[in-house]
Amino acid sequence: MPGVSLVGSGSACLTVPLTNADLSQRVDTSDEWILTRTGIRQRHIAAAADSLASLAAEAARHALTMAELGAEEVDLILLATSTPDDLFGTACQVQAALGATRAVAFDLTAACSGFVFALVTAAQYIRTGVFKHVVVIGADVLSRWTNWDDRTTCVLFGDGAGAVVLRAADRDRLLGFELCSDGTLNHCLNLAYRAQAAPLVGDVAVQQGSFAPITMNGREVYKFAINRVPEVIEKALFRASLTTAEIDWLVLHQANQRILDAVASRLNVAPERVVSNMDRHGNTSAASIPIALDEAVRAGQIKSGDVVATAGFGAGLTWGAAIVQWG
Questions:
Q1: Annotated catalytic residue: which of 112, 154, 256, 277?
Q2: How far apart are CA 260 and CA 256, in angstroms?
Q3: Which DSSP string do the residues of 156-208 spell out, in sequence order?
Q4: What is the DSSP letter of 94?
Q5: For the domain 3-172, what is the CATH superfamily, name and number?
């Protein structure tokens, strides 16, 4: 069976920063309050001319350039997102924007775990020999669904897009993974549809409503993350026949700096081996891991051959880990 190699990364460049000081003009908060509780100094907001598709395509282009792969060679585009431009799917728009005329394209939704779920899904297509070149994108525009008057949530979220290119290889660089879901905890984090009955004809009514802004029980999500994430990483490492001592880099979903610190501590991973860009981007949901990965690769931190433990966690509730070797 073919193996999977990660050969390129990319991210979109958003030009509209939203600082903690900016938010303090909208809600009762301060830079110190946000920074000490989350590790966030600023986040970026999609500009009026941006769409999820345009940001996702930009990230994918950069990843393809690093991989030295033409768009026409791509077999599959997987877009992990919870904030599509079109509820029927946005991946096909990305395919058209890239000119990836041969590629199958579809969306995958697993909230903040989406990139890890999509990475593992993409790998199975390569391992079975169906496809050779796959682009995996994590992208979200959470500013669309944030309640900007709720200081407990609006300080957390930002917009962004990141991508990686997977290629069939003789040796498998997806060393191990573990994926989990628990729907009994769904109430802890929601972007829910609110239906409103509307008469149609006679006694027949249809449900026509809209999506409500993000709601979150921060205390429960924190407890969930610091317990479940170390566990799922250890299970993925077991499948990879590796120990935490053999991890070169820990790249977690960028939800809260205190979560990153707690997970690293429980795994006995030194702080200097933890990739964090929380202060500049905030929580970008499915985009957070590929953005952090891309920045670390381009900064020369993550090098070819390095073992990277990634883990996503979020709404669903879903969580998962993938152990990969870069390059």
A1: 112
A2: 7
A3: TB-EEEEEEEEEEESS--EEEEEEEE-GGGGGGEE--EE--EEEEETTEEEE-
A4: H
A5: Thiolase/Chalcone synthase (3.40.47.10)
- pLDDT one digit per residue (tens) for the chain, 327 residues: 899 999 999 999 999 999 999 999 999 999 999 999 999 999 999 999 999 999 999 999 999 999 999 999 999 999 999 999 999 999 999 999 999 999 999 999 999 999 999 999 999 999 999 999 999 999 999 999 999 999 999 999 999 999 999 999 999 999 999 999 999 999 999 999 999 999 999 999 999 989 999 999 999 999 999 999 999 999 999 999 999 999 999 999 999 999 999 999 999 999 999 999 999 999 999 999 999 999 999 999 999 999 999 999 999 999 999 999 999
**Fold match between domain 3-172 and domain 175-185+213-325:** yes
State the Rg of the chain over Cα.
19
Cα separation, 117 vs 58, whole angstroms: 21
Q: What does the block give as tokens for 241?
A: 């026949």
Q: Is 283 a catalytic residue?
A: yes
CATH of segment(s) 175-185+213-325: 3.40.47.10
The residues spanned by each domain of the chain are 3-172, 175-185+213-325
The residue type of 100 is A
Of the listed 44, 62, 133, 253, which one is catalytic?
Answer: 253
The residue annotated as part of the active site, out of 20, 256, 277, 283, is: 283
| Rounded Cα gap, residues 283 and 122, in angstroms | 24
The predicted model scores a pTM of 0.96
Give residue for tokens 């809600």: 27
